[in-house]
Amino acid sequence: MSRSGKSVLVFLEMKNLEIGRISWEAMAAGHSLAEILGLPVDLALVASSGNPIFGHIHGKLPRTVYAIDNTLLHNYTADGFTAAYAQLIERVKPAYVVFPHTYQVRDFAPALATRFGQVLIGDVTGIEANPDGAPRFTRQLLQGKLNANYRHSGAGPCFLSVQAGAFRPDQTDPSGHGETMLEAFPPSLDAAKIRVRPGAPFRPSARTVDLGSAQILVSVGRGIKEEANIAIVQELATSLGAELAASRPICDAGWLPMERQVGSSGQTVAPKVYMAIGISGAIQHLVGMKASQCIVAINKDENAPIFEVADYGIVGDLFEVVPALTAAIRKAKG
């Protein structure tokens, strides 16, 4: 069931000359939405059409990629991005507009949606088709304790942002919609109407480890009982060439640094393999790792919620299972 618009338009973000993982996830969400609607996907990025970054986007096979370029966009401002994006939306007339749910998007996207008499459906974690063919969007409430379903009504475009880790970029449809076209789009902006003067970019505190880039994560929970026992799980992580992660209670106790926390108040990850050891599976933790390609859970409680999302589960004492796994991996490696 398509709306009056011609496409699903996905806005990407670039930082330090790279497109972040959450933007690729937004594109995956856009493809899922387009499949329901039977519409093509268009992409847009603030950059000059000569930027080599567009060569990477072409490999994802959207219908059209718009290079939004104006000197007033070289430094982010909510006024500038809102005006530029509004002009592109008026030009393309998409049925749905998809954003990654980033701090920047949270800053300007509600105002952008308001310009079109719409609201932003923020932090979407799932997209499915209703019986009538219209898309249904899922959002989490109360820190993930409840799921709420939303649908858009009205004649204007529907605006939504997608939660980090909710959609997997590797599941993007590789077939595309024919040949991709790169089109320069120079919005007409008035410097006098940009009320904010940008300062130095925000620089988050440096992390010694980026869990989001790890291919394998071994995560430990309160089932480890005490700090000294974390060494058992560290040995397993080392044997696998994995990064060590943790649930919130471990980091709150100071047993591992906060930068290794996975969950709603920590990092959102989507590795190829996620091993949850002694983690019960509270919703706050699941929010941060449910997009992992393969989840392996080890817990002595067969009714632990973690088993509901696990691809493989071992019901047993981690103090017996983990050393046995470590020994088997080392033996296999010779």
Summarize the structure in short.
The protein has 334 residues and is α/β, with parallel strands linked by helices. It has helices spanning 21-37, 53-58, 78-92, 103-115, 230-240, 248-252, 283-289, 318-333; strands at 8-11, 14-15, 18-19, 41-46, 64-68, 96-100, 120-129, 135-141, 146-150, 158-162, 181-185, 216-220, 243-246, 273-277, 294-299, 312-315.
Oligomer: single chain
Enumerate how many helices there are, as a single number. 8
Radius of gyration: 22 Å
Strand order of the largest sheet: 9-8-7-10-6-1-4-5-11
Under CATH at level 1, the class of the largest domain stands as: Alpha Beta
Largest sheet: 9 strands, mixed
State which percent range the strand residues make up.
15-25%
Report how far apart the termini are: 56 Å
Order of helices and strands: EEEHEHEHEHEEEEEEHEHEHEEH
CATH architecture label name of the largest domain: 3-Layer(aba) Sandwich
Low-confidence stretches: 173-177
Topology:
Blueprint: E1 8-11, E2 14-15, E3 18-19, H1 21-37, E4 41-46, H2 53-58, E5 64-68, H3 78-92, E6 96-100, H4 103-115, E7 120-129, E8 135-141, E9 146-150, E10 158-162, E11 181-185, E12 216-220, H5 230-240, E13 243-246, H6 248-252, E14 273-277, H7 283-289, E15 294-299, E16 312-315, H8 318-333
Parallel strand pairs: 1-4, 1-6, 4-5, 5-11, 6-10, 7-10, 12-13, 12-14, 14-15, 15-16
Antiparallel strand pairs: 2-3, 7-8, 8-9
Helix pairs in contact: 3-4, 5-8
Your description of this structure?
Helix content is 27%, strand content 24%. The protein has 334 residues and is an alpha/beta fold. The protein has two domains: 8-193, HUPs (Rossmann fold, 3-Layer(aba) Sandwich), CATH 3.40.50.620; 211-333, Rossmann fold, CATH 3.40.50. It has a nine-stranded mixed sheet, with helices on both faces. The chain has a five-stranded parallel sheet with strand order 13-12-14-15-16. Helix 3 (78-92) crosses helix 4 (103-115) and helix 5 (230-240) packs parallel to helix 8 (318-333). The longest helix is centred in the N-terminal third of the chain and has 17 residues, at 21-37.
